[in-house]
Amino acid sequence: MTSTPFQRARSDEQRAVRRQAILDTAAAMLVEMPVAQVSLNELSRRVGLAKSNVLRYFESREAVLLELLDVASREWLEQLDPAFAAAVADAGTGYRGDRLVAALAATLTARPVLCDLVSAQAAVLERNVSPAVAAEYKRAAIANAETLGRLIGSYVPELGEGDAMRFAAVTIMVTGAVWTHSHPTPAMLAVYETDPTLAAMRLDFTAALRQTLEVLLSGLLARAAGQPGGGLGRGGEADHL
């Protein structure tokens, strides 16, 4: 990608255009490389600005990436309703909970940039931002989690509002953790390939996320129903929705 030279931004409109160009350039970089490799120096070079000028629009690399995380989250949420609807359309032949979880896992698998950003959020992206930027991001994150919770609750009303929100929040945290563990370093990959006794430690992201969320959802439903063996599992007719 070639850099785009900019003249000095003098109006609010010009500043908005430049700010969006920085975001678009960073988003393009994330398609090419993981979050860890996105540097402010390279971002500045590609967008055609001095690093000091980029910092006039975003206080740090992390601030850029947090905004992109919010954008990616909202784009994902916009696609979830039709995905959920399609997943549970013939729920009479299966279980809504399992199908909803499968749709969650599939849609997240299809968005590796979002998953990579989520995995870096707490450990990296929130470490080099001011309280003002942190607060702005957290408000957006809470709004996104609430949107996810309401959507999940609309398809699995047995959860109740509180547990639907809990499931939504934990879904985001689990996604980040599973993504990290399912994308090991080259050294770990070499170990898995050469030592069969350790190969079982290598996780498939979609399968691991789906299994974890199935257990979580079943547990929340069992608690909501007041039946230790109940829920949305595959144990018997009492579990069927």
Which features would summarize this protein structure in a list?
single chain; mainly alpha; 10 helices; 0% strand; globular; disordered C terminus; TetR_C_34; DNA-binding; HTH_TetR
Radius of gyration: 21 Å
User: How would you spell out the order of helices and strands?
Assistant: HHHHHHHHHH
Number of DSSP-assigned strands = 0
Q: What portion of residues is helical?
A: 55-70%
Helices, by number, come to 10
Spatial gap, N to C terminus? 51 Å
Helix/strand structural class = mainly alpha
Mean pLDDT over the residues: 87
Q: Main β-sheet, in a few words? A: none
Kindly estimate the percentage of residues that lie in beta strands according to DSSP.
under 5%
Unreliable stretches (pLDDT < 50, length at least 5) are 228-241
Shape: globular
DNA-binding region: 39-58
Keywords: DNA-binding
InterPro entries: Homeodomain-like_sf, HTH_TetR, TetR_C_34
Pfam family, one: TetR_N
